[in-house]
Amino acid sequence: MADKESRSFKLWDVPTRLFHWALVLLVLVSYLTGEVGGFEFTMPGSGNMVANMNIHIWSGLSILTLLIFRIVWGLIGSSSSRFSGFVRGPGAIIDYLKGIAKRSVAFFAGHNPAGGAVVVLMIVLLLAQASTGLFAKEDDFFGLAGPLNGMVSEETANQITGIHARIWSVIEIVVIAHIAGNLFYWLVLKHNLIVPMITGRADAPAGAPPPSLKFASNVTAIIVFANSAAIVAWIKSFGG
Fold first, then answer.
1. Less packed terminus of the chain by CB within 10 Å, N or C?
2. CA 17, CA 7: separation in Å to the nearest integer?
3. In CATH, what number is assigned to the domain containing residue 231?
């Protein structure tokens, strides 16, 4: 027990964990309000479907806010959250996957090369999804449109709406692969990646000292998030 306690170390800061789980929740909300027609909210003075799509739009704007925050946090945040700490080239990713195939999992204080690639891919996809949603228009949902839809022609809006739908199809695949990957680590490799994202703590390998990580302050995170929200509010203002 004492040995395990000595190996335990702080891995993820609070802002990164809040970002992760808030993003999970908002992506789920966007899915339910955008694709599952039977999922209804009752709002006084408004039809259920209209209420659904309004929530869908606000969920998208919230996701955009989180993504801007995460990009900035990936540059100035804690060691384990910085892109420089987990973004690797194709060679490193392939070598890591070869190790997994041999049931030999290298230790990384943060995202491993494969996980880091998924993080970057997910950020890019969700950023594209949220950005196209600003201009999209869903005729099936009482013609409700993104806040910047009026800035483009109807033809352009239809094209962007199609792209918005196709990006989501790719996101679904990546999300399923991400969940499957986490389950594989947990059930097959006996390496739980989910708990540290909840508690913020992980265990170093036996015989290895805990890594030395630097953590940015929560105050800095609050400032970054407030500015991210201000940027999204500014973007939305162009739609009137």
1. N
2. 21
3. 1.20.950
